[in-house]
Amino acid sequence: MKKCMTNYRRAVTFVSFIFTVTLIGKALAVENSQVAIVTYISNNEQERSAKALVKSIRELSGKYKDSKIFIILGDPDNCPAVSLKGKNVNLVSLEMDSAFKNYPLAIKAFAASQVEKIVRDKVQTLLWMDPGVIVLNSPDALKLDENYDVAVRPVTLLNNIGLAPGEKPNSYWAPIYQENHLQDKPLPTIKTIADEVEIQPYYNCEVFSINPNLGICEKWAHLLTQLLKDENYQKTACPTFTRKLFLHQAILSGVISANIEPKRIKPLPITSGYPFNQHEKLPKEKQVSTLNELSVVIFDFAWAKNPTWMNKIPINEPLKQWLEDTYQEYLN
After folding, report:
1. Comparing C-alpha atoms, which of 151, 279, 145 is closest to residue 205?
2. What value does the mean pLDDT of the chain take?
3. How many angstroms separate the CA atoms of 307 and 305, rounded?
């Protein structure tokens, strides 16, 4: 009788263990399915960068390693991105007015809007990463929950684009404020990351996450379309390359401010969007001592233009070897 009871307890314990493992597995599967990742490519260099990004997600992102990845192809005829094909990697041709093709970074709004429509009502978090971004650790800060609708950080540098608190919108910002009905809305003050200047909401969009069910990216693309078609606005408000380059970012900032309450904007830590190229410009207290401390790093064009990039910030093993191998793959 005693032996039977012992066997019974063992059986119950085993069944309980299996049940617990099953529940954990299901919970992880649900969590993973709640995140989709999107980037874009338009040329061979971006394809090689995106390949490194995909590899980093699959090998270094922890519980997000099996997330569905969408890569928007800006020039599928000349850059079909064959090297990026793989499980849970979706290659999607860009839908954008061809007249905007050469406008600096306009592709980002249209790429994000396309994927937002695809994943709407299917995931809780749409995570945007530029090509040139790499994941080094689990990007938990970008995961949204019921308390937040966007995770984003301020721009790194003012670049003569941002508005000071209380400053009246100039010709560049005025249409953005008008279309989003922000003229009389109290807006929070934020501070640029590197030069630490206080400004009205102006967010970096090289790395951010959004709730795709709100249609924020669709609004972003819609307003960008309006301002790209406005010849007078382009001539008077965007006469320089810098003004053109950051227009997509200014518009997204306006759309976020108009549609998401400040308390539902999750402040993204610098470790989840570290500006590698501006490392020396950061205040000392914001500079990391090793790359190992970072979750997501924005290399931008460092790999293409700076062959000594590995000397900028110390890297500990095993990450150092992983980056060396991945960089060699990028070069080849």
Report:
1. 151
2. 91
3. 6
In three-state secondary structure terms, 190 is strand
How far is the C-alpha of 12 from the C-alpha of 9, rounded, in Å? Answer: 5
AA letter at 201: P
For the stretch 216-259, pLDDT in tens is 999 999 999 999 999 999 999 999 999 999 999 999 999 999 99
φ/ψ of residue 196, rounded to 5: 55, 50
Contact 272, 141 (CB under 8 A): yes
Counted residue by residue, the chain has a size of 332
Structure pTM?
A: 0.88
- Rounded-to-integer distance, Cα 134 and Cα 60, Å: 9
DSSP label of 166: T
Whole-angstrom distance, CA of residue 138 vs CA of residue 62? 5
- The secondary structure of residue 232, as a DSSP letter, is H
DSSP per position, 205-223: -SEEEE-GGG-HHHHHHHH
Residue 3 tokens read as 């032996």
CA distance 49 to 39: 11
E strand or H helix at 198, and its extent?
strand 198-199
- For the chain, list the domains and their CATH numbers: 37-331 (3.90.550.10)
Residue found under tokens 């590995």: 310
Assign 116 to helix, strand or coil: helix
22-78 pLDDT tens trace: 333 333 333 445 899 999 999 999 999 999 999 999 999 999 999 999 999 999 999
